[in-house]
Amino acid sequence: MLREVRESPFCDVVYEEMGPGGTGIDPTGIFQLMAEEGFPLTERLKESYFPYRFIAQHWRAADPEVSLVGDFCVMNIDASSERKLEPLEDFIWYESDRALLSELSILDNIARGGSGQLATMRFLPGVSSPEIWYLDRFHTFVKLDMDYRDYLDNLIITKGVIGWQYLFADVSLGADEFGNTLDDLRTMLRIFPEQFPDHDYAPLQERLEARL
């Protein structure tokens, strides 16, 4: 994915970084430790493990007439389980939401090209597939219809276009509050099939239409 963005004439990469780690690491011990801590992972999620603590990229459209931006700093599942969402005072939430928020760990920190969005995981003891929640610290939080592996698969397809996560949320993207997000998603689905033809964008187009 990093290479696809880097080599695309459509994208201008602003920032890119890979965290500590490297190829050749056997994660078996990590999975065993997570299971002992109460978080046994499914084989599906184990297969999605990548050996860097995080992978980050921020890009913008090279054409100044196109306002599309991509941004992600996605954690591997072990690193995510350790990084709790705190301090909660940084977020504008009702007091009644704090119990849920205290259970969330950061999955994807969208801080450079976004405006404070976060994708998070809800690790619950004994649950083998954490819930995925998308947060905008100035707006709302919503559960996503996906697991960790789905998140990575669709990050590869969307290249981190801001707001792509709403395609997997129970929201009405035709509402005024999602105006900019809807414009960006439409732009992505118009341009990306040509720029990145090895990926299938039809399922995302169907999801967009279902939310209008």
Poorly predicted ranges (pLDDT <50, ≥5 residues)? Answer: none
Number of structurally distinct domains: 1
Beta-strand fraction estimate: 15-25%
Global morphology: globular
Kindly name the structural category. alpha+beta
**Radius of gyration (Å):** 17 Å
Helix content: 25-40%
Task: Please provide a brief summary of the model.
By secondary structure, the chain is an alpha+beta fold.
Sequence-ordered SSE layout with sheet pairings:
Blueprint: H1 2-7, E1 11-18, H2 28-36, H3 43-46, E2 54-61, E3 69-75, H4 77-82, H5 98-101, E4 104-110, E5 117-122, E6 131-136, E7 141-143, H6 148-158, H7 179-195, H8 202-210
Antiparallel strand pairs: 1-2, 2-3, 4-5, 5-6, 6-7
